[in-house]
Amino acid sequence: MMKLLVIFLLFLSFSSHTRTDCNEIYRILDTALEGAQARVDIVQQAKEEILTSYFIFNKDRTGMAGLALLTQAAQQNKKVKVIFDDDFNEISLGLMKVLEDSGVEVKIFHPTFAPGSFWDKVKSSDYSFGDYTAEQIFKLTHRMHDKMLIVDGEIPVEEGGQIFITGGRNVKGDYFEQYQKNYDDRDVLIQSPAVADARNYYLNLWDSQSVSSPNYKKLSRTKYEEAKVQLQEASKILEESEFIRSNTGYDWTDVSYKTSGIKFLSDGIENGVVDPTKLSDTLAEYAMNAQVSIQIETPYLIPTVRLMKIFKEKLQIPGFKVQVLTNSINSTDGMVAQAAYELKKKELLEMGVELYEYQGPNYLHAKSAVIDGEYAFIGTYNMDPRSANLNTEVAVVVKDVLIAGELLESFTRNLDESVSRKIDPETLEPEGGYLYPVPRKKKFWLSFYKKLIKTFPILYQQL
User: Fold this and answer.
1) Could you give the angle at which helices 32-44 and 61-75 cross, rounded to 10 degrees?
2) Domain span at residue 448?
C-alpha cells in the first residue's frame, strides 16, 4: 500500500511539473474573422513594440484599416516598424511618408520601382549594363514573402509579451472574406520565448542590405496631402467596421491547453545578406527524419528535385504515407504554377503520393504540414522553387500530438472540398474529375502554359 502511495505522489509531482513547464501558446487561426480580430487585438493591446512585414499590403479597405491601426499605435508612443515588399504592395510613397510623419518607421525590401532605383536608371541616357543590372535582376526575382506581426518581443511571456502571428494571410480584403471570391487560409498565433528569435530575425532583416528607406524625392505635396486624407478616412473604417471590433480587451493567449518547445524557423541573414535557402534546408531535415507520414497543405505544389527525392525515399518505407492537398485548375489563383504542378502530377502519383485537389469555390492558400502526427508546421512557405531558393520565408513548429491533431482536423475539413487524384489503369494518366465544370478558357491557358514550361524549363525554377 505504501509503495502505491509513493508512486501516486511521484506521478502527481511529475504531472504538476509538466503543466508548469507548458506555458507556451500555439493557437491556430482558421477563420478569416479570427485572423483579423487577433491582429487588431494584439496591436491595440501592445505595450511597447510592434514589428510587422507583409508580402502583400493592399490599399483596399482592409489594407488601409491596417495602416490606420499601426498609426494609432505609433501615436500612443509605441515603437512601430513595418517592412513592405516593393513589388507586391500597393502602399504609395505618399502613404509611407504620412506613416513616418505619424511615428511609424518604414523600410522597403529590394526596391526596384521606387524613384532613383533600377528602372529610373535604365531610362537615363548614360546608363550602361553590367554588374548593376545583374544585381537589380537578382533583387527583382528575390522577394520578401514573410507575413509577420511581432508584438512586445522583448517582454517575457510571464509579463504578457512575446506574441507573434504568421501564416498565409496577406493584408488584403480577400484574405479576410471581404471579396466575392476569397482565400481559404490559416494563421497561427503563438506566445513563446521563440518570439525572441522572430524579433532577432526581423531586426537583422531591417538592418540588412536587402531593405532601404523610401526615397521621397519625387513625392509631390499634392500626393502627400491626398495620402493624409486617405489615412484619416481609414481610421473611420476601423471605427465603423461591422467585421471586426476595436478595443475588445480579449486575451488571445487565454486558452485551456498550453504547450512547450515552440520553434521559430526562418531563412538566414549573415553579414547583412539574406540566405533564402536556410528554411528549405531546415524543413527538408524534418521531412527526412519522418518515420510514419508527411501531410502537406500548399496552394502551389511545384516540387523541387530535393522534394521529389525525399518523397521517393520515404515511400520506400512500408506503410509510409505522403499526402498533399493543393489547388485544382478551378481553385488556383496562379495558372502558370498550376501548369507546372500538372507536369509533375503523374510522376507524384506513380511514386505513391496521395494527391488531393481543392475544388473551391475559393482559392486554397493555407501553408501547413504535419509530420508523423506530432509535428505541426504553419507558415509562409509554399512547396515550390521560389520558396525553396528565392523568397524569404518563415514558419512556426511545435512537437505536440494534440496540436498536430487539431491541424489535421482543419486539413480534413478542406479535404472534404477536394477530389482525390489517381492513375487510370487503362490510360496510365491521372484521373479524378471536378466538382465544378472547368471553363474552356482555363483549359486553354493551362495547356498553353504547360507547353511554355516544357519549351523553356528554366521557367520552372522561377515559379
Assistant:
1) 20
2) 276-462
Exposed / middle / buried, residue 120 (Cβ in 10 Å: 0-12, 13-18, 19+)? middle
* Three-state secondary structure readout of 349-372: HHHCCEEEEECCCCEECCCEEEEC
pLDDT value, residue 303 = 97
- The answer to the question of residue 106 being in a domain is yes
Output the nine-digit C-alpha cell for 459.
521557367
Backbone conformation region of residue 316, classed left if phi is above 0, alpha if psi is from -120 to 50, else beta? alpha
**Do 145 and 79 reside in the same domain of the chain?**
yes
Task: State the Cα–Cα distance between residues 231 and 228, nearest whole angstrom.
Answer: 5
Could you give the C-alpha distances from 232 to 223, 228, 235, 240, 429, in angstroms and in order?
14, 6, 5, 13, 57
Task: Provide the number of structural domains found in the chain.
Answer: 2
Blockwise average pLDDT, block size 10, the chain, 463 residues: 38 38 94 97 98 96 96 97 93 96 96 61 59 71 95 97 98 96 97 98 96 92 95 88 91 95 96 92 98 98 97 97 96 96 95 94 96 98 96 98 97 92 74 83 94 91 83
pLDDT for res 164: 98
Q: Which of 426, 208, 416, 200 is nearest to 325 (CA)?
A: 416
Cβ neighbour number for residue 4 with a 10 Å cutoff: 8
Q: Where does residue 348 rank: exposed (0-12), middle (13-18), buried (19+ CB within 10 A)?
A: buried
Give, rounded to a whole angstrom, the gap between the first and last alpha carbons of the chain.
Answer: 67
CA distance 25 to 261: 10
Tell me the three cell numbers of residue 251: 486575451
* Rounded to 5°, angle at Cα 364 from 262 and 438: 160
Q: Report whether 420 contacts 353 (CB < 8 A).
A: no
Say if residue 303 is in the same domain as residue 409: yes
Asked if residue 219 and residue 85 are part of one domain, the reply reads: yes
Whats the size of the chain, residue-wise? 463
Report the C-alpha gap between 376 and 265 in whole angstroms.
12
Is residue 312 within 8 Å of residue 351, measured between CB atoms?
Answer: yes
Separation CA 136–CA 141 (nearest Å): 9
Q: What is the pLDDT of residue 113?
A: 57
Residue in 291, 385, 303, 395 with CA at minimum distance from that of residue 344: 303
- What's the gap between Cα 2 and its chain centre? 55
235 lies in the same domain as 297: no
Q: What is the pTM of this model?
A: 0.91
Which residues fall within 8 angstroms of residue 198, CB to CB, at 6 or more apart?
148, 150, 153, 164, 166, 264, 266, 394
Element (H, E) at 251: none
